[in-house]
Amino acid sequence: MKKTFPLLALLLVILTACPKKKDQIADNATTAQLVADSAYLYTKEVYFWNTLPGIGTYESFNPRKFVGSDLVKTADDVIKSIRALQPADQFSHATSSEESDQIITGDGTDWGFWVKSGLVALPDNAANTRWFVPYVYAASDAAAKGVKRGWIMNKLNGSELRGDQASVDKLNALFFGTATSANVEFIKPDGTTQVISLAKTRFTENSILYSTVFTNGNKKIGYLVFNTFLGTQAALNDLLAVFDNFIGQGVNELIVDLRENLGGSTAMQDRFANILVPASKTGQTMYRYEFNQQLQQGNFPLVKKKLGITSNDYFSVSTNTETFMKNKNLALNRVLFIVTDNTASSSELLINNLKPVMDVKLIGETNTRGKPVGYFPIELFDKVALYPISFKTVNSVNAEVPYEGFTPDKIAVDGINKDWGDITEPCLANALNYINTGSFLAAAPATSLKTTTRSVVSGVLNQLDEKRKRNVGIYYEPKNR
């Protein structure tokens, strides 16, 4: 069941039927043909780059050439064909309605943890690569059985896991396949091993993985690990509760850990930004959405009909400009973000929106993902959800998130062998040192990880990350207009 913010009657655009266009879609068309037709026609209407010549007409594009037995793959192939026309678009896709709901609400069936590769020795090769757990969701079976960030997933059903293709294939089959149970041997930070029988279960993700307050003299430093921008009231309540606690403890400095946050709800981003922003910025522009000219000029008959929209200004710039409205009595002059290449979309939107209005510092081992564009889901037959890129965002000084991502102010290794809140973890250690002394650390803290760069086997390892990243992003949530 979807849970939504009560002040928004329509948090997500869900279109549940297929368009009909005379002499284009026959009455006796199959469901797969209708999915292919709809994927093309909806994408052509809302796609941010919808004037590209290759999109053509229904007849010239012929979406039914992509029809197959799998409805999601049929829609995805149509969208990928259009995506291929725009090099900047690495994101448009289709997924199942079930996966779409899970992305938005965090409610779904999952293993409850992820893995990230790291080197335990040099040289940089497959033999020295291990698979670390970067996070675990609290309500998952893995968490219930004690799995924590920093553990190494050493064996899967008795087979050793390293940085080779066979290991990546096994992990892909586990995380994206049909298996519902697995025996996993973990290596803990103290070197001991534990074999755990894990189950894939249904639960709701917790967007806040960890929070605490560090004290150094008169500095009260709030530290928050925020893993996803879920579009639910429960997620908002959790966020507000953490900041109520910070305010109660007198927090006057803040570190927000976004290293594994791939994005999500723009409405949740708005609420987060309004907590962090200085009160003096209330009423100033936070950011604006920019849609294609067809949408901005009110020419969107398919979307208009399905949403019952009567105003042609629904996608106009003036209607889609967000302003700061300070929330909570938290007075900050600056905020430090911990980032990686898994910091994307709404995470980058938050950073980009705050940069013009307060001091922002980034710490991490790589640039952020680089995704200034987003989408809203278009659902077909309660089975397929289309995600064609439909807009980009720009902040109050007309700057967008760079496609190459934000470069950290301090390069520091992602200490994936350390649990949350460990002050020896390189990124957190640098953030704390900067707050306490005004400078980042000159030398990296001691760590058993030699490096987490994956130069030799990156092509293999990226196969796992890419499958995870395709179903996440930045989601536009239309308001009542």
Structural class: alpha+beta
Distance between the termini: 25 Å
Overall pLDDT score: 88
Give the CATH class of the domain at 107-204: Mainly Beta
Q: What characteristic shape results from the CA principal axes?
A: globular
Sequence stretches where pLDDT stays below 50 over 5 or more residues: 1-25, 450-458
Strand order of the largest sheet: 10-11-12-16-17-22
Could you give a short account of the major beta sheet? 6 strands, mixed
Helix content: 25-40%
- Determine the CATH superfamily of the domain at 107-204: PDZ domain
The CATH architecture designation of the domain at 107-204 is Roll
Radius of gyration, CA atoms, in whole angstroms: 23 Å
CATH topology of the domain at 107-204: Pdz3 Domain
Number of strands: 23
Could you explain the architecture of this structure?
- With 481 residues, the chain is of the alpha+beta class.
- Helix content is 27%, strand content 22%.
- The chain has 13 helices and 23 strands.
- The protein has helices at 31-46, 58-61, 71-83, 97-105, 141-144, 165-176, 233-248, 266-276, 293-296, 301-307, 346-354, 426-437, 458-469; strands at residues 93-96, 107-110, 116-119, 129-132, 152-156, 159-160, 181-187, 193-199, 201-204, 208-216, 219-226, 253-257, 264-265, 285-291, 321-323, 334-339, 359-364, 373-374, 378-380, 384-387, 391-395, 410-411, 474-475.
- A hairpin with a 2-residue loop joins strand 5 and strand 6 (159-160).
- Helix 8 packs parallel to helix 11 (346-354).
- It starts with 30 loop residues before the first helix and ends in a 6-residue tail after the last strand.
